[in-house]
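Morning run. Coffee first, then this:
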Amino acid sequence: MKQREETVKELLVRFQEFEDALNGESTSPLHHMRSEAITRFASMGFPNQRMEEWRSTNLNPIINTTFKTVLRFESHPQIQERIASHSYIGKDETRLVFLDGHLDPAISFVASMPKGVVVEDLATAMRTGPEMVLASLDTIGTLDQRNAFTELNSAFLIDGAFIYIPRGTTVEGVIHCVFVSTVSDQPTVSHPRVLVCCEENSQATVVESYLAFEDGVYCTNAVTEAVIAEGATLDHIRIQLESTDAFHVSSQFFQLHRNSTGTTTTISLGAKLARTDISAELADEGSECTLNGLVLGNGVQHIDNHTHIDHTKPHCSSHELYKNILDGEARSVFTGKIIVRKNAQKTDAKQLNNNLLLSESASADSKPQLEIFADDVKCTHGATVGRLDEEAIFYLRSRGIGAVDATTLLTYAFASDVVNRIKPQSIRAFLDGIIHNSLHQLS
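And here it is:
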């Protein structure tokens, strides 16, 4: 087993090799960001279970695996066919498709957009309009909200999605960012990045999907940043469907300004080990954020969600609902922190985490937290861990429904509370189908 210090040293050497392989791009505007990020990573090292924020998640399976970074785009026709037939990626829907972190232009498609809207890969955006990208890239999220994986994403950043919605513009339909990992003889790692900038009074729906079409060991280390300006609305959905042998680590940062609205829904169905950190800063009066999540775990999956909502100004509201369904020996972790600053009066914050255990071996850790420094607020939080209601099962069986179907029906009803809040009908329909299929496969 490798020591953590050895892995850190290996990554520092690989960073230098990575920059050398960029053939002169190390002099680009991204070079300064990369260099600062790798310096911070070297200083902090990997988190460990002695740290409160990581005590429930053992990162050794990731740290002890040697991953190869895919430096150049390679086409995979079979995957192109599968993407084209994928049920929830609309044929005429705007989509940026990335294979192992690189844009695949052959299967990406940008529909007709209102004037001024930008939907393109980060590499292109950095060539055509670097000032627009660098104004927001790597600028939100405080240092104490970042971790080693966030810094590694910035250090090894090659490509990703850049979405810019100008002032007063509404984008109809969905902007879909699809990240596909391929499986090879050696485990690979990709560092996808999504940057969304919504200017004043704009509106958009952005979906991120992370998936693989075959089982295998790889690591996805993703970062999403979203700046939501005054009066803007962003509806964000994130679907994690990685291989059951894969690792998935992600950080999401949302910054909301005056009278803006941001909603993000995180659906976690895949990966052997998954960790998601979400930070939302309500940076001005009247802003509102909603964080919803659904976990469906089986086998030996370990899925960890950490959320951090920071109320910094008065008259803001936040709503949070996370539901976990666990079977086999799966384990979920939920840690939700809401901070209400001293001058954030009239804050309205609600947080709820419900956990449903379908087997004796499944387990759920829940830690809701409130830190309130203001005195005129309405804040609630709660958590439940339990099994299906035997009386409800008996009632359904008394109406002629079999035991398996009764369990599936009640479990689906538990999950649908999150799924039904998703606005795009195509996404809801897809998730309905995959949840039904998954529940029938549960032990």
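The first strand starts at residue 68 and ends at 69. Good start to the day.
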